Amino acid sequence: MENLIKSIQQTTDFLKKKIERHYKHGIILGSGLGNLTKEIDIHVQIPYADIPNFPVATVVGHKGSLIFGELGGKNVVAMSGRFHYYEGYDMQQVTFPVRVMKFLGVETLLISNASGGMNADFEVGDLMVINDHIYLHYEHPLRGKNNDELGPRFPNMNHAYDPDLIHKALKIAVDNEITCYEGVYMGVPGPTFETPAEYKAFHILGADAVGMSTVPEVIVARHMNMKVFAISVISDMGYPPEKADKVTHEFVLQKAAEAEPKMRKIIVELLKEI
145, CA 20 to 30 Å: which among 1, 131, 220, 244? Predict the structure, then answer.
């Protein structure tokens, strides 16, 4: 953990030399959702490969750069591409950028992803604001000796997703005639898509959508007392069986890209209200 602190500080010091403004809002962009960066008035853009201690994104649809700029009238630091456990990284590496954001001064983290729907009311292309999650990874991002400089040993996960931000986002969706639900996100390690039995089991457990990211970043953000908002594009349906798609990664990217303008609208308008 001591080495983690040193790495976070080293990366933070490197980035602070590249920027001249204060950035209070962070954004993590998921699969096929990178076009949001086109709306950012970019101040500085740094490839992950040039940032000390950063992993490098290996998944199609994740471009791999850290962007500092202005969006919705707010200074933001955006991850264009995220890291996943299934790529071979451990949870400290997956969540490392979130810790760096906090050290840079980020107070609110907005997260997007593409996920598989398991709610009969959903259709492909709908949006779901996440109001809770179920965690089914084998490795926990807070496993190991805790450092009180980062956060408490046992962080409370009630209201992990900020209720005020959820309320604002749902109102924005209604005002802009965007179909947007709220629901529970199931976080799994991947990289295989779920079997029909798994989709059914996750639905029975109470999840409305399932994906291979987001939850580790949320846990670490809350560990460091950041406010969190997360939104999913329903890029495919896994349950009920009559709605199930023959899903591929290419299918997910296509459907996420088609739905992105709606998600982008909600995030930009939400930033204006924060």
Answer: 131
Helix axes 215-223, 91-104, angle to 10 degrees: 40
Beta bridge partners of 58: none
Q: Which two tokens stand for residue 190?
A: 């991947």
Yes or no: say if 170 and 162 are a contact pair by the CB < 8 Å rule: no
pLDDT in 10s for each residue of the chain, 274 residues: 568 999 999 999 999 999 999 999 999 998 767 788 888 999 999 999 999 999 876 655 446 899 999 999 999 999 998 899 999 999 999 999 999 999 999 999 999 999 999 999 999 999 999 999 999 998 999 999 999 999 999 999 999 999 999 999 999 999 999 999 999 999 999 999 999 999 999 999 999 999 999 999 999 999 999 999 999 999 899 999 998 877 788 888 888 888 889 999 999 999 999 9
CA 33 to chain centre: 11
Please give the CATH number for the structural domain made up of 25-273.
Answer: 3.40.50.1580
Helix runs in 122-246, H state only:
163-175, 196-205, 215-223
Taking each helix axis as running N to C, give the angle between helix 163-175 and helix 249-273, from 0 to 180 degrees, rounded to the nearest 10.
Answer: 100
- The residue length of the chain stands at 274
